[in-house]
Predict the structure.
Amino acid sequence: MSLIVQKFGGTSVRDTERLFNVARIIADTYDQGHDVVVVVSAQGDTTDDLIEKAHEITDRPDEREMDALLATGEQISAALLTMALKKLGYRAISLTGWQAGFLTDANHGKARVRRINKERIENELDKKNIVVVTGFQGLNRYDDITTLGRGGSDTSAVALAAVLKAKRCQIFTDVPGVYTADPRLVKNAIKLDEITYDEMLELASLGAQVLHNRSVEMAKKYNVKLEVLSSLERVPGTVVKEVCKMEKMLIKGVAKDDNVARISLVGLPDRPGVAFKVFSVMASHNINVDIILQSVGREDTKDITFTVARKDCAEAVQALEEIAPSLGIKKITADENITKVSIVGAGMESNPGVAARMFEALGEANINIHMISTSEIKISVLIDKELGEKAVLAIHRAFFDEV
Ligand code: ASP
Ligand code: MG
């Protein structure tokens, strides 16, 4: 008998009708002879509402109490879904993160799963129960409730699938899978049948909001076969796995990330150790740097331009202003009016001309590129923010219109 883990996101369980819809999906899987472990998110906007309530009380809620509060959202959906399953005549039991054995590190609000004691879940499965587990939460070594960060229920599901050696981990959401671009923007975006872990990781970190980044990392590490699919339409979704079949798709998707800011340092002394000083200051402030560009030195000076997440921009500039006099930086400028557009695909590793095709599409659309960065399976360009959507459409057309 094989075990399947099924995770349902907030929109999939948002009200009674949706809860019964989900209960029927689970019941069908159980009726096919599988053991089923279910992971649920909080209903609809519950987590946002709880955060808002906390902020009505204080600007800086205590992080331990915040986790105690946020963990309740998933408890509501787990209990309600279990009632729905029972109403349909199935054996089911809900378990909180700690009842299900989730042990995490001590980092409130962004805890990592350390271990899962699976005895309780296995006992319940032996009793032929469908086990409904609250996503997004566990207990740290002080026996305090922790949460895994926004979107963390995906990670709970993958972690369970890994420890329980599930045949498959299905992530049900309100879209039928992973698309070649945001379908709200690109009307003829194509649903992918499959995508590799690495491609999915790139897309997830570029802001494609289908899967929690860490869940994909974990799925790759433990070789969990993931499937993203819709709880509203019973159609096959997108399978995420190690390698995909040889196929004609050069790239798997085009993504846009507005959460970037560009910082330029002008007139730095052109000598060894300067880049080290700049970026060690960023590291000491825990600021992630993405694309870096250094100009060719001239008359003993050079410029360095790089990007950071928009939320870190002000702090980065302030930190750099502090070291500017001692390092000899003449000018610091910051620009938040930019966006990053990227293409992702393992196919570009073995096919020359992918970058040229992307740049041609941008050139024809009259879009100027400010910075470029590449990895084995990704090419990103930085452009003016107001041209972002136009760029995504032009690039998508160049790669997918003849597929
Ligand atoms: N309820 C949490 C959130 O909204 C966790 C999740 O949905 O995955 O972020
Ligand atoms: Mg989610």
